[in-house]
């Protein structure tokens, strides 16, 4: 069994002019919502083996806040530049490279690719707001099988739910 949690980074700030898209930070709501989502995951007993994130500041910040809430060592977070500005297929390719010994992975990314991948796995997911977590369980032994089989369970949690 493999459990994949796709996280759209929390709400980012547009206040600072002259800041590149890659360097945009979280806004107040994002800094509030990300740890709250992490606490919800912790309350459900989610224990990731790996936490991947885009290299963008807002994604890395979201990943760090979720990690703290889960008791996941921030030093173990992997920032992968391929997750920034990626296509759905590129994000899936990164996930398929995960070690098969790992059974639970969290991937923090961006839209539209995070929402599109969630929709590909489960057609009922049509909207993934900032800070949302889409959780999928697959009855597979290897990460490279994702995308070839439907998930056995799907869960969507948003900051407003």
UniProtKB/TrEMBL annotation:
Residues 16-35 are annotated as: Disordered. Its EC number is 3.1.3.-. One of its GO terms (molecular function) is hydrolase activity. Residues 20-35 have a biased composition (Basic and acidic residues). Pfam families: His_Phos_1 (PF00300). It comes from the Bacteria. Keywords: Hydrolase. This is Phosphohistidine phosphatase.
């Amino acid at each position: 069994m493999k459990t994949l949690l796709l996280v759209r980074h929390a709400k980012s700030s547009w206040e600072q002019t002259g800041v590149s898209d890659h360097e945009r930070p979280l806004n107040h709501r994002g800094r509030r919502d990300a740890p709250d989502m992490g606490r919800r995951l912790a309350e459900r007993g989610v224990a990731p083996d790996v936490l991947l994130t885009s290299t963008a500041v807002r994604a890395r910040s979201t990943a760090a806040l979720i990690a703290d809430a889960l008791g996941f060592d921030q030093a173990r977070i992997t920032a992968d530049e391929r997750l920034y500005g990626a296509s759905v297929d590129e994000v899936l390719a990164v996930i398929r490279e995960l070690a098969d010994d790992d059974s639970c992975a969290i991937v923090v990314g961006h839209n539209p690719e995070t929402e599109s991948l969630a929709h590909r796995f489960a057609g009922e997911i049509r909207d993934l707001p900032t800070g949302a977590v889409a959780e999928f369980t697959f009855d597979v032994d290897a990460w490279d099988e994702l995308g070839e089989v439907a998930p056995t369970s799907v869960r969507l949690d948003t900051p407003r739910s």
